[in-house]
Give the backbone structure.
Amino acid sequence: MPTEHVGGAGDPYPHAIGEGFALMLGCRVTHWAPDIVEVELALGPQHLNRAGSVHGGVLATLIDVACALSGLYSGVPGRVRKAVTLSLTTHFTGQVSGGTLRARGRARAGGRSIFFATTEVVDAEGRAIAHGEAVNRYRRGSETADGVPSDEQHS
């Protein structure tokens, strides 16, 4: 499983992906700032469907991860923010069978406990492969950029 990029030397966002499904899939955060994130995934045979193109569940996961992370940036060292997805809508617009996918998420609006985000997934040539929207709810303690201590990441 691709775990070497999370928390490893030179990883600019060691707490972004965590240790769960997105890590197992191979997601990697390459850019993260308030209200914006970029997540990459190098496609392998495990990401493809029987027809040989990227599986819709992989694309939905990329959209979900990027939408959530777009609203969870914390510039406070040693702190993280967490949220749960309340609603996720996906639209598949292209096919790809290899290379690297890039998901660009942006938090669009929100209130004290809920935020709305959009994500576009493109292939290595910049062609649109999928896009989606999500509604996320902050977990307790994550409503502000201060977040919670990273050692409480799994609570």
In short: The first strand starts at residue 28 and ends at 33. The domain at 21-142 is CATH 3.10.129.10 (Thiol Ester Dehydrase; Chain A).
